[in-house]
Amino acid sequence: MLSQKPKISVIIPVYNHARYLPEAISSVLAQSLKPMEIIVVDDGSDDDSHGAAETFGTLVKVLRQTHQGISAARNLGIQHASGNFLALCDADDLYDPQKLAKQWELFLADPELQMAFCHVQQFLTPDLPPAELAKFHCPSEAMAGTIPGALMIRTATFHQVGGFDPAIQVGEFLDWYGRAKVLNLKETSHSEVLYRRRIHGQNHGIRTKDAKQHYLKILKANLDRRRKIGTLS
Question: 42 and 72 in contact (C-beta within 8 Å)?
């Protein structure tokens, strides 16, 4: 039987996002269903991301590693997590105040549920000058989000899938989710927008060269994996 008060660990990896990190942390602290811990992993930032996280004092556990990429940073945070549920948040994004509570309701309604996503809305960060903002097209409609920040998952289920591949610098979640799909895990998605993804020009997928080629390789690997075990014709 599920506890009425889950122990949720929220993992926030950060690399050179001191500008946005405090707002991301604050959005997690503002949850109506409080997480048991927030773990920020500074992936060897050159700016003051580490200091920005430490201003929250004992409310946030801060870890630091040499720059190894977002996969390794998430994995380190998860290794130190104590909760029986995990949630992820990118350092430049925002939780809706009801995110954890409304996703937890999905687990209460279905004790066999293993992971839950939610809808996501993108927004252009208002701190960029107009000339920079004009460069980006940002769809305003909500969309079903199979991205890290939209996920809430049982810790045991995450370890069943395995950690994020540190060798993958772009599309690491697509690779992870492909491995999860092979296991036929029970999943669902909340129909409301509970996660807001900030577009600011320095997003990981935007600033990485040849990002599309990385995604195509991962998609092919996922298809090959599913064909191998017979889940695709």
Answer: no
- pLDDT single digits (tens) 9-47: 999 999 999 999 999 999 999 999 999 999 999 999 999
pTM for the model: 0.85
C-alpha 1/C-alpha 16 separation (Å) is: 42
Q: What is the pLDDT of residue 126?
A: 79
Identify whether 230 is part of a domain. Answer: no
Question: How many structural domains does the chain have?
Answer: 1
Range 135-149 average pLDDT: 83
Structural domain includes residue 37 = yes
Q: Indicate whether 78 belongs to any domain.
A: yes
Q: For residue 70, is it within any domain?
A: yes
Domain at 64, CATH number: 3.90.550.10
In the predicted model, is pLDDT for residue 209 greater than 90? Answer: no
Structure tokens, 38: 């927030």
H helices of 33-165, in order, are: 49-54, 70-79, 99-109, 130-133, 155-161
Six-digit token pair at 218? Answer: 């991962």
Cα separation, 47 vs 45, in Å, equals 5
